[in-house]
Amino acid sequence: MWTCPKCKRGFTRKNQRHACGTGNRADVLRNRPPEVVGVYAALEKFARSLGPVELVTRERYVLFRSNRIFADAVIMSDAVRLAIHLPRKREHKLFITVAADRKHVTHVAKLRVVAELEQMKPFLREAYKHSMS
């Protein structure tokens, strides 16, 4: 592990390029409808239940990170766009985009209600486990 001397965050690679600090949760949720805030709050609560998770916020983006980023969210005006980084391609009716690179397969879903998040939990759990390896 390498720790940034400026912000004290830990990384798996020495001199990892990053923006120091983790941002402010309130900034990404400002002026969002209660439904969107509710979906995001449930997402954050579940992610934290998986184990040690760092949340990094910038403007309207939230990165969910253990040893590596396992998911990221964009807080939109009508939904939470959730990208889940898995080791393999998976199928689900809520995935609107699936894209692979040489390290992982990113599955994107647009969540408007907490019930849709419930369907994503097994994928988030798998992504978290993968990020710890």
Please outline the helices and strands.
Layout lengths: L1 E2 L6 E2 L13 H5 L4 H16 L4 E5 L2 E5 L3 E7 L4 E7 L8 E6 L4 E7 L2 H19 L1
Antiparallel strand pairs: 1-2, 3-4, 4-5, 5-6, 6-8, 7-8
Helix pairs in contact: 2-3
Write structural notes for this entry.
The model has no long low-confidence stretch (mean pLDDT 91). The protein has helices at 25-29, 34-49, 114-132; strands at 2-3, 10-11, 54-58, 61-65, 69-75, 80-86, 95-100, 105-111. It has 133 residues and is an alpha+beta fold.
SS-derived structural category:
alpha+beta
Estimate percent helicity.
Answer: 25-40%
Rg, Å, rounded: 15 Å
Number of strands: 8
Number of DSSP helical runs: 3
Distance between the termini: 14 Å
In short:
With 133 residues, the chain is α+β, with helices and mostly antiparallel strands.
Keywords, please?
3 helices; 31% strand; globular; two-stranded antiparallel ribbon; 133 residues; alpha+beta
